[in-house]
Design goal:
Layout (H helix, E strand, L loop, with lengths): L4 E6 L2 E5 L2 H21 L5 H32 L4 E7 L2 E6 L6 H29 L3 H21 L7 H14 L2 H28 L3 H30 L5 H4 L6 E2 L5 H10 L5 E6 L2 E7 H5 L11 H4 L1 E2 L12 H11 L3 E6 L2 E7 H14 L2
Parallel strand pairs: 2-3, 5-6
Antiparallel strand pairs: 1-2, 3-4, 6-7, 7-8, 9-10
Helix pairs in contact: 1-2, 2-3, 2-4, 3-4, 3-5, 5-6, 6-7
């Protein structure tokens, strides 16, 4: 999930907001300002209630961020890179680049988030005991204590990919020695709980709780999709275990002269030939790479007057892999950098290209062959 707004970095991890965050921030602020705060503290003036509600919402998302940082901290301690942390409509997600290598690491990373939320619930609960006579402090304190406790308990539901599901997977992984089997069971559990949320949502709508029902249905839908996607991702990693880049790369790498006008490249090689990526070379010596994406960044009116070498990315600026590199690692690198292809280099020469379409074809072929 890509963040729309970048907030900064913690431990080198980019922190950002997805566009959907603004919707849930507004809903929580509205709910607090029109419900809990005026109901429990009617003496507070209207503008104060709204400002307090907005501030409490920000503290809530700070708590969600702390929860995700708990996961990230343990991931980094176990030498697992974390690509980013994004806050969105359903809370937050720490995008961990690869699966833990053992059930112990999986357990520690999974339990860290709920432990942070339990600690925050205790902290805000203690603050409430100290400031309950002061409405401006008591209102956010008690709500943040309750919501962090709820966050911790909810995430401990034993359904993948919730934290509780990952804890369940770690336990089954330890017991069976099979990550694939553990993922299958935890994902099935996740989908059972997901459909349970959807069922509760439908029931709530029929009983008059329309908003709560819709929210439960959305949560169930999200969990069901996330569980299925996580299971597919783990299966993919298992099926590609031990596969190298050289086995999946394409050795056909179309070349183009650096002095070729962009308009000519588009008309003769892209529209007619269907190619989307070209090695820029002169006298057999690679100079760079130009892709469909590079061309689309240039206004079309400039195509006739711009040559390939003015748009290409030079060799020293390209991410590169070798034929011996792990295929799954190369895919994760492409995903983290949001690129569709990457040159394969050996002895300072391009020997092939690795692109997403080729990898999909390779995986599909393996599946059809039953290997």
């Amino acid at each position: 999930m890509e963040a729309s707004i970048k907030l900064g970095k913690v431990w080198g991890i980019p922190i950002g907001l997805h566009a959907s965050w603004f919707l849930i921030f507004g809903l929580i602020t509205w709910s607090l300002a029109t419900g809990l705060i005026p109901a429990e503290y009617p003496e507070l003036p209207g503008i104060t209630v709204w400002l307090l509600a907005a501030l409490t919402s920000l503290f809530f998302f700070g708590s969600v961020l702390a929860h995700e940082l708990g996961h990230a901290f343990l991931a980094l301690r176990n030498q697992i890179p974390v690509r980013a942390i994004t806050l969105f409509i359903f809370g937050g997600v720490a995008q961990i680049s690869k699966e833990p290598s053992n059930p112990g690491a999986e357990f520690r990373i999974a339990i860290a988030g709920p432990l942070v939320s339990f600690a925050l619930a205790g902290l805000f609960g203690a603050l409430y005991l100290l400031d309950q006579a002061i409405p401006l402090l008591a209102a956010p304190s008690i709500w943040l204590a309750r919501i962090n406790l709820t966050l911790a308990v909810f995430n401990l539901i034993p359904g993948f990919p919730l934290d509780g599901g990952r804890i369940l997977r770690a336990i089954i992984w330890r017991a069976t020695g099979s990550l694939s089997r553990a993922t299958q069971i935890a994902s099935f559990s996740g989908q059972v709980f997901a459909f349970g949320f959807i069922g509760l949502g439908v029931l709530s709508i029929f009983q008059g709780g329309f908003f709560n029902g819709i929210w439960l249905i959305f949560i169930g839908w999200f969990l069901q999709n996330a569980a299925a996607a996580s299971y597919a991702q783990t299966n993919l990693q298992q099926s590609l275990s031990g596969v190298t880049v050289g086995e999946a790369m394409s050795q056909e790498c179309q070349q183009v002269s650096p002095n070729t006008p962009i308009s000519q490249l588009v008309e003769e090689r892209i529209l007619r030939g269907g190619q989307r990526c070209f090695l820029v070379a002169e006298n057999g010596k690679p100079q760079g790479l130009i892709t469909f994406k590079d061309i689309t960044r240039l206004p079309q009116r400039k195509w006739p007057f711009t040559t390939v070498n003015q748009v290409m990315r030079p060799m020293d600026a390209l991410l590169q892999v070798t034929p011996e590199n792990d295929l799954m690692g190369a895919l994760q690198l492409m995903d983290s950098e949001n690129i569709a292809q990457i040159p394969v280099i050996q002895d300072d020469q391009i020997v092939g290209m690795l692109n997403r379409e080729q990898v999909v074809h390779y995986i599909r072929t393996r599946a059809e062959l039953g290997i």
